[in-house]
Design a protein that fits this description.
Blueprint lengths: L1 H6 L24 H4 L6 H11 L9 H7 L4 H13 L3 E7 L5 E7 L3 H13 L35 H11 L12 H16 L4 H8 L11 H11 L23 E3 L6 E3 L14 H6 L1
Antiparallel strand pairs: 1-2, 3-4
Helix pairs in contact: 3-5, 4-5, 7-8, 7-9, 8-10
Amino acid sequence: MADQQLSAPTRVPSGIRHINHEHRRGYVKIGNHLAQHRELSMTAIGLATHIQSLPAGTKVTIKALAERFPEGEVRIAAALRELEQHGYLARFQARLPTGRVVTSTVSYNNPPAMATGAARERRVPPARSEPEPAPDSEPDPDPESPPEPVADPAPVVSETELQARELLARLRLRDPRLVLSERDAVRLAPAAAVWLERGLAPGAVAAVLTRSLPLAAIHSPAALLAHRLRELLPPRLEVPRATHPARPDHTIPPLRTCDGCDRAFRSSAPGRCRDCDPPTDAAATAA
């Protein structure tokens, strides 16, 4: 009987068992929306976890990642495209003041929450505070009625800022992903107006803002445009100094033909040269 009990199989629960130990340092926090994503490959999930654990400023180019992991550049490039497609990564090119073009990468640790927050912001209008009622004042003994309070004038918007708002609103005609709300267009208009004040045409500004856009979905077009308006701002052109015109020299009499000998001589009026019509003695003495 004892032998039979020893030979009986021991029941072991199937499936995964977790033995967890608390991390006190050197850890990264990721959500189940990434770790259990149904459409991402294991390579993409692992790569997203690695990228979120890196400090800001670390290079995450395909070449740098291929040197770090055994996967080749082809698999890493495919994983990066997966992360871009599902909103965990955004890559776009920017031109430095030196003329060099660099690739900027942005990592999003929680795209579902960001998409929900953006949708809620578009759906719920901003709350407007109601003005407090003015306290009842005692009637003025003066028979003349007091002047009515003058309402504060509406803020004056310059023609350049209005043109900048129109420019930002029309960016969606170049790329449907660049749809801005009216609130975002008003907020970004002063930054775009600086470009117009520096001599750039609206078409040139729109071309710079829409150049080399990321291939994946743009989750926050307002943030992308604000970054480009700030980082790609062209320098101000110096106004050339006004030069003083040179003083004109003394007027030189034109050349004329002598009526007597047909020789050329300079004189303010037509007539004869000095040889054909010498000056009188009085004129010579005066000279």
